[in-house]
Amino acid sequence: ADEDSPSWSPDGLWIAFKTNRNGNWDLYTVNVFDLSEQQLTDDPAHDRMPAWSPDGTRLAFVSERSGNWDIWVMDVDGSNLRNLTGHSAQDSFPAWSPDGQRIAFHSYRDGNGEIYIMDAGGVGLQRMTTHAAADWGPAWSPDGSRLAFTSDRDGDGEIYVLDLNTGALTQLTFNNADDSWPDWAP
Q1: pTM of the model
Q2: pLDDT at 83
Q3: What value does the mean pLDDT take over residues 133-156?
Q4: Quick check: 16 and 50 in contact, CB under 8 A?
Q5: How do strand 47-52 and strand 37-39 relate by DSSP bridges?
Q6: What span, in angstroms and rounded, lies between the C-alpha atoms of 108 and 70?
């Protein structure tokens, strides 16, 4: 089977991942010490991009079970499944804020790939970037005041940081290569 998209639990005991071992792309967790596994989803739709809540009790992920790429959330035992975005546009790359109150994600709902934030219940949607280029892969700073993300504003992938308090946008990388998937040091 193919397995990818690993995501560590906040306590470092579990890794969530997607796999096609039963013919569908489902989410599983594996305990890193005793290697016990738990299947969390079992749907013909493609489930991907698991992201742990900071308290380790929920997973946000992307699923096509509604016919579109939507952001879903569930408890880590696979229960209490809920579609948060329910939009016809492609939504992806969920990232929890450090306090667990908000989720940043990438969406094509305006025709361009932009970064949005909503509260963890799926309401209060805010568009954070407004450029004709694609912005994706948001990552929260440890204090929750900034988002790092990838953008192709200059024709290739570069890393940017958006200050959520001031709206200031800073480009961090400058080259003719694709830079992507930023992550913050704790």
Answers
A1: 0.94
A2: 97
A3: 92
A4: yes
A5: unpaired
A6: 11
Confidence category of residue 4, pLDDT binned at 50, 70, 90 = confident
Structure tokens at 74: 């569930």
CA distance 2 to 21: 7
* Half-sphere exposure for 136 (CA within 13 Å, toward CB): 18
Our CA angle for 4, 5, 6, nearest 5°, is 95
| Interatomic CA distance for residues 30 and 179, integer angstroms | 30
Distance CA 120, CA 139 (A): 15
Q: Are 118 and 124 in contact (CB under 8 A)?
A: yes
Cα(73)–Cα(63) distance, rounded to whole angstroms? 10
The residue behind tokens 């005041």 is 145
The span from the CA of 43 to the CA of 88, in Å, is 20
Tell me the C-alpha distance between 160 and 138, whole Å: 10
